[in-house]
Amino acid sequence: MQDGLFITFEGIDGSGKSTQACRLADALRAEGREVVLTREPGGSKGAEEIRRLVLEGDKDRWSAETEILLFTAARRDHLEKTIEPALNEGKIVISDRFADSTRMYQGISRGDLRLTVDELHRMMIGREPHLTVLIDMDPSEGLSRALGRQGTEERFESFGVEMQQKMRAGFLELAEEFSNRFLVINGTQSLEDVAKDVFAAVKGRME
Ligand code: ADP
Ligand code: TYD
């Protein structure tokens, strides 16, 4: 029996997903709801180990095909250890990225591998979120925000602004493909205004 609610945040690097996922978790907790805030790649011990493999190092370290396997392996562990147990307890799970990120980053960045992504998803994951918040924004602004963080996890950010343009368009197309679960939010506003829009949109779908 699963009666929890599974919400994901998606969007290009630096669009404000982590910030807004955290804000939404706080707002829902303030209403007395039990919320598990998690992220991908990662969100469980094994998946966090895979995170290091995929996000650090040289841009050409892995092929897109190998990445699909690594991200899906991480997701399967995340699902088994973190997401499903929480949903089974009736909690709200908020994940900063999920399968739509693989559909975009591995599915379209280096040739068209979307069918491969979908096939493996069907076999190994088989679950979509109830709601997906897409934080939509101009890629050059997102990239400068993301690079401003100066971390070591920059394998994907070093793909550059052209790739981020392709990702933005791809995410907007996904929002149409899965219009039953996507909420598109304008990320080029103040942090507070984005948070207000996200909360209102999510509450609107929860009722
Ligand atoms: P993502 O998880 O999508 O990569 P983050 O939430 O980590 O994005 O935000 C990237 C950077 O941009 C952070 O330094 C964050 O403080 C900043 N930021 C987030 N939202 C906004 C906003 N609405 N306006 C300005 N800066 C923001
Ligand atoms: P994340 O930590 O969310 O980065 P950011 O805060 O910059 O958005 O994710 C790290 C990177 O991993 C990001 O560039 C997107 C990439 N990624 C994939 O390529 N495929 C996936 O399936 C996932 C979940 C993430």
Treating each run of at least 4 consecutive H or I residues as one helix, how many helices? 8
Helix content: 40-55%
What small molecules accompany the polymer chains?
Answer: adenosine-5'-diphosphate, thymidine-5'-diphosphate
The percent range for strand residues is 5-15%
- How many discrete structural domains? 1
Secondary structure class reads alpha/beta
| CATH architecture grouping | 3-Layer(aba) Sandwich
Task: Specify Rg, calculated over alpha carbons.
Answer: 16 Å
- Residue runs with pLDDT of under 50 for 5 or more positions: none
Quickly name the level 1 CATH class: Alpha Beta
Q: Tell me, what's the shape?
A: globular
Name of the CATH homologous superfamily: P-loop containing nucleotide triphosphate hydrolases
